[in-house]
Amino acid sequence: MRVFRDPPYSDHAYASAELLDSQDKVIVRLCQEFFGHSPEKQREWMTHELIHAHLARLQDVLDQLKDQFPDNAAIVFAKQTHHLAIEVVVQRMARLLAPAMPLPTLPSGVNY
Ligand SMILES: [Zn+2]
Questions:
Q1: Domain range holding 61?
Q2: Strands 25-30 and 2-4
Q3: Separation of CA 79 and ligand 1 centre (Å)
Q4: In a domain? residue 106
Q5: Mean pLDDT score of the chain
């Protein structure tokens, strides 16, 4: 995992994850406010993003369908519904799994 100074993709998120499928790597982007929270909360959010990375291929299927049929109301609805459902499931899994993960540490040389 590499840490970047780039903000998350959403203004409303503390973090975002991007799967680099061809390289089998994940880029996790963290906002400045992320580091003001407890290590336990940071670990939960990092776990959340890593779970998203593992589910990215499922999201890609709906994204591709939406790209192929941009005006299909059923696909638009499915994509919106799927997004909300995935957030709930990912957060629940993160709360369960995070305590088993190590607490996050900043790589040496990274200054926030
Ligand atoms: Zn999420």
A1: 2-100
A2: parallel
A3: 15
A4: no
A5: 83
Residue 79 lies in a domain: yes
- 58 CA distance to ligand 1 centroid (A)? 14
- Answer whether residue 7 is part of any domain: yes
Q: Give me the amino acid identity at 16.
A: S
How far is ligand 1, taken at its centre, from the CA of residue 76, in Å?
A: 19
Q: Give mean pLDDT, residues 48-77.
A: 90
Distances (CA, A) of 107 to 1, 35, 76, 110: 10, 13, 40, 6
Distance (angstroms) between ligand 1 centre and the Cα of 52 equals: 7
Q: In angstroms, what is the span from residue 112 Cα to ligand 1's centroid?
A: 23
Instruction: Please tell me the total count of domains within the chain.
Output: 1
Q: What pLDDT was estimated at residue 98?
A: 96
Distance 37 CA to ligand 1 centre (A): 17
Predicted structure pTM score:
0.77
Tokens of 14: 């503390």
